[in-house]
Amino acid sequence: MKKAEVYLIPTIIADDGYMHIPEFAIEKSKTLKYFIAERARTTRRYLKKLIPDLDLSKVEVIEMDKHDPTLIIPAFEKLLQQGKEIGIISESGMPAIADPGSIFVAKAHEYNARVVPVTGPSSIMLALAASGFNGQKFSFNGYLPVKDHELKNKISNLIKAVQRDETQIFIETPFRNRRMMDALIKFLPNQLKLCIAYDITGQSEFIKTKTINDWKKSKIVLEKLPCIFLLGK
User: In the listed set 76, 95, 117, which residue is the last one of a domain according to the structure?
Assistant: First the structure.
């Protein structure tokens, strides 16, 4: 039997970012009949926008449980055992990067399936490239702690890493962007540099690197959009 193939299909990271989806991702999506996705509805909408003449009635989208994505692993394993071609698709950007798709990629390797990452926009990598910070030594920290004392301790550790010339990258829930910015201004040294990036590849794309001292003067008003924060020298 033919080995299963798992394709990591990128999605847009801004509502108007379809021009950033490469041709191969579009062509491959035309042939896939099975997708693993966080949300079936948004995935179907994305596929229809990407491929207007696609017959969605012939496409099966297996939706993850928002509380426990592992619940659909048995359905995924069945497709792997049958040697199917399967797409893993994220709600935003590249699957398996700050994304539950990694659970399914790990399972695909257990079944010796071919895993094919398809080129596409990744807000984390695009922000790093545009920040001017060290791109050879960096860490992605996901979400920082919510509690004030834990957040302060984490920021202290990030400062030490930056002093070793290791770029530190993290994200925040849009409605907490303002709170995060206030904490960074409060706890970071004036001369340390902060890059803020949001709506990457979108019409209101914003990517700016400044010292904390300069950010204090700018009085930035953060949009309620997904932000990438980067600290560096």
Answer: 117
